[in-house]
Amino acid sequence: MIDKASEENLKNNIDIVDIISNYIEVKKAGANFKANCPFHGEKTPSFVISPFKQIFHCFGCGVGGDAIKFVMDYEKLNYPESLEKIASMMNFSLQYAQGSSDHSETRRLLEQVQGWYSKNLDHTITAKKYLTDRGITTQSIETFGIGYVGASHELMNFLSANFLPIPKAEEAGVVAQRERGGGFYARLVERITFPIYSASGAIVGFGGRTISNHPAKYINSPQTKLFNKSQLLYGYAKAKEHIYNNKKLIVCEGYLDVIMFHQAGFKEAVATLGTALTEEHLPIIRKGEPKIILAYDGDKAGVAAALKAATMLTHGGFDGSVVLFPNGQDPADMIANGQIQEVAKLLRSGQPLIPFVIEMTAKSYDLHNPREKEVAFGTVKAYLDKLSPIIREAYIAHSATVLGVAPALFGSNAKLENTKSRFETPRDDIAQLSIIKTLLESKKLIDEVLNVVEPSMFNNYAGLLDALIKGEYHNPHLTGLMIDESIKTMQENELKSALAAFLFGHYNKKLKSISTDTSLPLRKKSFLIRKIKMDIMPRLKRGELVPYQLD
User: Fold this and answer.
1) Global pTM?
2) DSSP 8-state secondary structure symbol assigned to residue 223
């Protein structure tokens, strides 16, 4: 139980605007702040926050209360959990009644594990050599708390020797339980570790980089009550003061890029945690109203990620630019090679976000082909139509020049005549498109998915999945899918469920076709029917993905 005096002290220090703006975008409106209500769909803001009264109220759906009530409703937490969540955001240390259980114990465990990881690095020559070879200094290692974890049993022994409870370690995402109750194991093994902090500076999880050629190069902590990778940015706690002061925020692709950027003096750098930049990141990157610099690798994956992020940012009203690092280099490599001035020049000369989206979208199509040119026009016009009227008007001439069409076509009365529906991939199965889009953004999952599906199973979308597998990221249909906000991407667990449902439907159809297939020998037909009914479909119902292909 939280100590009453500590609870009151926390309440007295809460800033409701700061707390709510961690979840949704808020804008000043006189003495108050306004936002679109997160509890019911609306286009006109009716959600009002009063900093003077420290309350919120939605005039649309009637919900209201203080900051604690907001967190309870938004996060679906109980009252003590909400207090702990807010305390974590504020880096406030709650006090607890003797013998009570709380999340502060989980945070203390994370801090102790982080200290152990850091000490391990001093005794691991291979890990230290990797960091030295990448150009990371001793000071940066200390500043960012870089560490190392070895074999699983070493962490388990550390937890035991320090009387750190395994359930809390599991709650913190440090360990996991083997299937069917087979004991616990360390989630990170033989990896360089990077502690991950909330915006307020409280440790919430870890990232790990393999040095043993594990197929998963990077692994992050799993989703916990303290760790939500879609709302976190690596390095933000250290960068936020510089972001506020310099009105600039650099978004890059990885831990090492962030560390090397900071090491070279570009201290506004942050990175997403193994995911694309999402709308859940917008509230945190809007703080201080900085210009956004997307600093990505210049390979196909980097270009695709930059296009998606730039589209989302411009629709959200952000200003900024895109920098694509040339010749297969990334920021960390260039800085390690002493090319700091070249990096600074690249950051200063980035392409503005809106022209980047227009030009990269146009490059996805063959503009010498009238049909594809029409699709390109429709895609660019749809993008411009989501911008504010003034901004849209400013970029019509540029869009017309890039596409080679008359500016008048972008007028409000221009008709696309179902251009996209005629020339883009059919859209009769949103679930299949969502699976493909998820793989497009999380390519590390492709091999795993190909163990259970093949392109032919996707019927109308077989060509789309095949293009993805071949790495044809500039395929116009993949590009269209990537920027289509109506098709959602999924978390890994959601993808697994979607695949299980998709496979169940596939094998159900397969069962019917086998039953009516007169060309199959009776013995083979009986075998296949039993295989599907007695083995495959029961496993799929349990959510298990079945790596089996019928002959």
Assistant:
1) 0.64
2) P
